[in-house]
Write a structure and sequence with these properties.
Elements lengths: L6 E7 L6 E4 L9 E4 L10 H7 L11 E4 L1 E5 L7 E4 L8 E7 L2 E6 L4 E4 L6 H10 L15 E3 L1 H4 L5 H13 L6 E4 L20 H10 L3 E6 L3 E2 L4 H5 L4 E2 L6 E2 L2 E2 L1 E3 L4 H17 L1 E6 L14 H15 L4 E4 L4 H4 L5 E3 L20 H10 L9 E3 L12 H10 L5 E2 L8 H10 L20
Parallel strand pairs: 10-11, 10-22, 11-12, 12-18, 18-19, 19-20, 20-21
Antiparallel strand pairs: 1-8, 2-3, 2-5, 4-7, 5-6, 6-9, 7-8, 13-17, 14-17, 15-16
Length: 448
C-alpha cells in the first residue's frame, strides 16, 4: 500500500437501521462522535478549517466516515463492536467506512489492527478496553490534576499580570477552589518569542512569587512549534521556519511552522522553557501542536514526538504539560493532560455547523465522545466551565462537566459570576479523578 491509496480492510454485515459508526478525529479540535451508520460525519466548513481543525492533506470523502487512527462499528445491539485502529502512536492511518445496503465497507491507507470487543460491551467500554492496551497508555493521567483558572475566555489577549493576580485574589475571596492561575495568549512579546512583554503584561517572576505567597501556582500558554510573522524570532531567524508547510492563519498573518530538524531552533525553545520554569511557571499549556506533525519532507509524526520528548526532558516531571490542538494518537505517553475537544465559547452552535469550530455544542459532543481516554492515555481536558450570565445553555454544559472525570478549569472572572455561577463553580472545580472513569449512560449518538 503506497501514498494515499485506500485498500480494503473488512466488510461487515450490519442493520442500516440500527448500526452506528464511531469516528475519531486527528487532533484536539477535530470532531469525534458516534453517528448513525446511514448518515455521514462532520465536514469542515472551509479549506482553512480543514488545515486547522481536521487532518491537513487528508480530506474525508463526500459520504461516509473517516477516522484518524481509530474507527469503530457497532453492528447491532448486543453484538461485539469492531474496532479498527493504529498499532501505536508512530503511524496513524486514515480509516474509512461507508455503508452500502446492509454491508459496511472499511478501508485504510496504512496498516490497521482489528479488535473485537466483548459481547454486550457499549462503545465507551469497548474503546476503553482497547485504549488500555495502546502503546504508551498508563504513563500519565493517573495522578489528580488541580483545578485551573484560564484567562482566555474572559480577557482574550488583554491579559496582564495584574489581572491574573486580581482574579486569583477574587477567587479566594469568593471561595472558588482554584489552584493554578494560567495566563493564556497575550502575555508574551509575540507568538514564537516566548518571553514576557513586561511593558504591557508586567513582571512574570513577580506574579509567580505573589501567587506562591497565596498558596497558588502560575501557568502559561505557549504554542511552541509556531510563530507569528511579526515575531522577533521570525525576523532574526527566518531559516528556523518551514516555508513549505501550511498551518493556517492567526495573529494577523500566516502561521509560521518551526523546523523541528533545526537544533538551533529547538535549543532556543528549550532555553525559553527553562527560563520560564526558573521564573516560577509550573503549568504549561502547549497549543497549536498539530503544526509540529504536519506532513512533509523531514516532518511529521516522528519529529513531533521527538520534539515533545525534548520538551518533557527540559521541563522534567514536576512541571505539568497540557497539550492542546494536539495530534491525539501521536501524543499518547507524552503529556499529563490533553484537550479532547474544540474550544468552548459563550455561543452554543458552531460557525457553519462545523463541529471543529469553537462553541458550547462542539465541546459538548466531542469531549463526551473521547471520555474513554481519560486515565488511560492522559487526564482529559474538556476545556473551561463558562458559568457567567449570558453563556448559552450554561446549565447543560455544567451538567456534563459534572460527570466527566477530566481536569477542571474555569474561564470566568470571579467577580462576573452571579449566585448560580458561583455555586456551580465552587462545586465543579475539583482535582481530576485519578484513573479511568466512565460517564453514566451510553455514548449519545449525534448527527453532523
Amino acid at each position: 500500500m503506497t501514498g494515499r491509496e485506500f485498500a480494503p480492510v473488512a466488510v461487515l454485515d450490519c442493520d442500516p437501521r440500527t448500526a452506528q459508526v464511531y469516528e475519531f478525529g486527528w487532533q484536539s479540535w477535530s470532531p469525534a462522535a458516534l453517528y448513525p451508520a446511514a448518515s455521514r460525519s462532520a465536514r469542515p466548513m472551509s479549506r482553512l478549517a480543514q488545515v486547522m481543525g481536521y487532518r491537513p492533506g487528508r480530506p474525508a470523502p463526500p459520504e461516509g466516515f473517516q477516522g484518524e487512527g481509530l474507527l469503530a462499528v457497532a453492528r447491532e445491539d448486543g453484538e461485539p463492536i469492531v474496532i479498527f485502529a493504529a498499532g501505536g502512536p508512530d503511524q496513524v492511518p486514515s480509516i474509512r467506512a461507508k455503508l452500502r445496503g446492509g454491508r459496511m465497507e472499511v478501508s485504510a491507507d496504512g496498516e490497521v489492527q482489528v479488535h473485537i470487543s466483548e459481547k454486550g460491551a457499549g462503545m465507551d467500554q469497548a474503546l476503553g478496553s482497547w485504549a488500555a492496551s495502546f502503546p504508551g497508555a498508563g504513563l500519565y493521567g493517573r495522578e489528580p490534576l488541580p483545578a485551573v483558572w484560564c484567562s482566555w475566555y474572559c480577557l482574550k489577549d488583554r491579559v496582564t499580570a495584574a489581572s491574573v493576580l486580581g482574579a486569583a485574589r477574587s477567587a479566594k475571596r469568593r471561595g472558588l477552589p482554584l489552584q493554578v492561575f494560567q495566563a493564556d495568549d497575550g502575555w508574551q512579546r509575540a507568538t514564537g518569542d516566548w518571553w514576557p512583554d513586561r511593558e504591557r503584561f508586567g513582571d512574570l517572576g513577580e506574579l509567580a512569587r505573589a501567587l506562591r505567597a497565596e498558596g497558588l501556582e502560575l501557568g502559561l500558554w505557549l504554542a511552541p512549534f509556531v510563530a507569528a510573522e511579526g515575531s522577533e524570532s521570525a525576523r532574526r531567524h527566518p531559516d528556523w521556519y518551514r516555508s513549505d508547510l501550511d498551518a493556517g492563519r492567526n495573529w494577523k498573518g500566516q502561521i509560521l511552522v518551526l523546523d523541528l530538524s533545526r537544533e538551533a531552533a529547538l535549543a532556543h525553545l528549550r532555553g525559553r522553557l527553562e527560563g520560564l520554569a526558573d521564573l516560577g511557571v509550573s503549568y504549561f499549556k502547549l497549543d497549536f501542536l498539530y503544526a509540529g506533525a504536519l506532513e512533509g519532507e523531514g516532518s511529521g509524526i516522528a519529529p513531533y514526538r521527538r520534539a515533545m520528548e525534548s520538551i518533557r526532558g527540559t521541563l522534567g516531571t514536576k512541571a505539568r504539560i497540557v497539550a492542546c490542538g494536539a495530534p491525539l494518537l501521536p501524543t499518547v505517553g507524552l503529556a499529563d493532560a490533553v484537550r479532547v475537544g474544540p474550544d468552548t465559547a459563550p455561543n452554543w452552535e458552531p460557525q457553519g455547523g462545523d463541529l471543529s469550530q469553537p462553541s458550547g455544542r462542539s465541546a459538548h459532543v466531542v469531549c463526551r465522545a473521547r471520555a474513554f481516554a481519560h486515565g488511560r492515555w492522559w487526564a482529559n481536558d474538556p476545556d473551561c466551565l463558562l458559568a457567567r450570565p449570558g453563556v448559552e445553555n450554561r446549565g447543560r454544559r455544567a451538567r456534563q462537566l459534572a460527570v466527566l472525570a477530566g481536569m477542571t478549569s474555569s474561564g470566568d472572572l470571579p467577580e462576573e459570576l452571579d449566585r448560580w455561577g458561583l455555586a456551580v463553580t465552587r462545586r465543579l472545580m475539583r482535582p481530576s479523578v485519578a484513573g479511568p472513569s466512565a460517564p453514566p449512560g451510553p455514548m449519545p449518538e449525534t448527527r453532523a
